[in-house]
Specification:
The chain has 21 helices and 22 strands. By secondary structure, the chain is α/β, with parallel strands linked by helices. The structure holds flavin-adenine dinucleotide, NADP nicotinamide-adenine-dinucleotide phosphate and flavin mononucleotide.
Length: about 575
Amino acid sequence: MVSPIKIPDNAPFSPEQRQWLSEFLGTMLASASGGAAPQAGPSVPVTVLFASQTGTAEGLAKKLVKTLKKGNFEPSLNDMATYDRERLPKEENLLIITSTYGDGEPPDTALELHTWLMADGAPSLEGVSYSVLSLGDSSYPDFCQCGTEFDTRLAELGAKRIYDRVDVDVDPDEPYAVWSKAVIALLSPAAGAVVTSGAADEEEHEETGFSKKKPFPSSVLKNHNLNGPGPKETHHIEISLEGSELSYEVGDALGLYPENPEDVVDEIIAGLPFKAGEVPTSTGEEVSLREALIRHYDIGNINKSLIEKWQKRSGSPYLRSLVEADDRKQWDDFCWGRDLIDLVLNYPADFTDGEEFVSVLKKLQPRLYSIASSPKAHPGEVHLCVGIVRYDSHGRKRGGICSTYLSDRLKDDTKPGVYLHHNLAFRLPADGNVPVIMVGPGTGIAPFRAFLEERKVTESKGANWLFFGNPHSATDYLYKDELEGFVADGTLGRLDLAWSRDQKEKVYVQNLMVKEGAEIWKWFQEGAAFYVCGDASRMAKDVDAALLTIAKEHGKLSDDDAAAYIAQLKKDKRYLRDVY
Ligand SMILES: Cc1cc2nc3c(=O)[nH]c(=O)nc-3n(C[C@H](O)[C@H](O)[C@H](O)COP(=O)(O)OP(=O)(O)OC[C@H]3O[C@@H](n4cnc5c(N)ncnc54)[C@H](O)[C@@H]3O)c2cc1C
Ligand SMILES: NC(=O)c1ccc[n+]([C@@H]2O[C@H](COP(=O)([O-])OP(=O)(O)OC[C@H]3O[C@@H](n4cnc5c(N)ncnc54)[C@H](OP(=O)(O)O)[C@@H]3O)[C@@H](O)[C@H]2O)c1
Ligand SMILES: Cc1cc2nc3c(=O)[nH]c(=O)nc-3n(C[C@H](O)[C@H](O)[C@H](O)COP(=O)(O)O)c2cc1C
């Protein structure tokens, strides 16, 4: 019997195409799995090319290669950072997995290949068969932009798309399974049947442990504010992983499932035009609308996709004009600082029941936090450094969902659901003798506390240099005693502190870097690795610009050569960023 393959809801197909493709792939796999010798014939070469900022695409690419190896394929795993682009026109089968970062930008590791491919002189790619899995998050206006650009450009250059791009909205498991099965079947139906059925068994096996799908109910051991009196609030949180069998390395992040604030949920329910009953959740259970809005659905920041759906049930002329104008600036202006509660109260919609109402909402997503501890220093524990997001907008006091869950809403017996997010793209050098420079203002300190603990416990000989910054030394010197302890015991060779508001002129970490440019350049010549963590939108860009300045001033490089030097550092994994 033929089992149709499910095509993900966000795959860009019409209902007819969807049905045809689903049946076609199901038929191919079924007929191929009936064959006795699927491994016969020459093996199929497949180049899996990934670009990842925080490890998700890399993890999927590795999984895909592992699956392909089980069949008559000859897969090769390639990071865009180090991929030899001259190979591109000669590839037979190319599978790209990439995420999107910043404002619709490629991950750091994809920048060079992306720029080269988009430029006028890019070569013809006739003869290359390809497909793209594009990771993203539809709450960003430029949803899956990088994958879209690779996909479009490859087709423009003559490559043959064997399966339409799949855009992943946050949760990759299901779309990855569908995409990988489909592309494998299309590359070789016979070999594909063998490996994809094997992969299903493997996935079932993997699911026995705690994971994003099955988070571990953790215990919070410690939770306190690191700041003194003032507007900043940054919590140090210690969580026990005892009994979970979860393990991590420094550089990894912890995923944590939050709950929405009950008072806002009650206000939403009171503002709805129907009587609250039971509603379905994404896991198929039926729960009360209140429970669903606390634990299962996103009631936080609104975006274009939600407003488009909301507008269809609301008579608001303003929302209609917003949708019709479809202007990026107008969307951004309207969405900034507004949450679901603003739509409920100010743009009422005529949903008839809870089921219809929750159908327009997105699933409540876990948040990632860079792990601030070394497992060697704190076995069985994971420590976090969380900036609490609070602001006033449109006449209402608001808070970030997860950060205020951690600061305000945890009760003694709360067991937050957690899982590990391995960030293979943010690792200490394997050789402990390599010097490292770390730039982590604000909560960006988190992974560097972990790095320093790790380098101390492992008695690594490589020198360590940290740039930290925050508004005021008196109130915002996070982990002051520990950092000074690292200086005292020699773990931290240099500690440079940028107190942005302790004087009239702002002083930021990049100002200190430029001042110390000659020394930083010397460290680079000695093979140092350079790490940045924290704010992506401003700080990380300014730090990048400071590096360019240093390469020009102290390396005596031209603009182009300085840019090439920085690009090479990224390629060599000596310039790594964990920015958000
Ligand atoms: C790999 C990775 C590692 C991370 N590590 C850390 C870490 O170590 N520590 C840490 O604190 N965070 C970290 N983050 C960020 C973290 O995941 C969350 O995004 C953060 O805690 C905010 O989540 P929230 O649920 O509290 O806020 P949300 O409910 O997601 O709300 C945040 C949103 O509120 C809106 N907003 C915020 N301020 C204002 C304002 N003044 N006016 C109007 N609107 C505003 C913005 O739209 C903003 O995007 C990391 C993120 C990633 C991806
Ligand atoms: N995704 C989220 O919703 C979320 C959650 C937590 C944090 N964040 C963001 O992540 C960032 C980190 O927050 P945080 O509290 O850890 O610290 P932060 O707001 O980044 O502040 C840390 C220090 O960096 C300074 N700074 C500001 N602009 C800078 C720039 N262009 N270059 C270098 N330094 C700069 C700040 O100075 P001044 O403030 O004096 O200018 C402060 O001294 C913030 O932008 C924050 O909004 C986002
Ligand atoms: C700071 C930041 C910026 C992002 N920008 C975008 C974006 O512009 N468009 C998008 O679709 N997704 C965006 N994302 C979502 C990521 O693409 C998504 O989380 C992806 O799964 C990450 O994969 P990776 O771990 O392989 O890098 C962003 C995520 C972060 C943390």
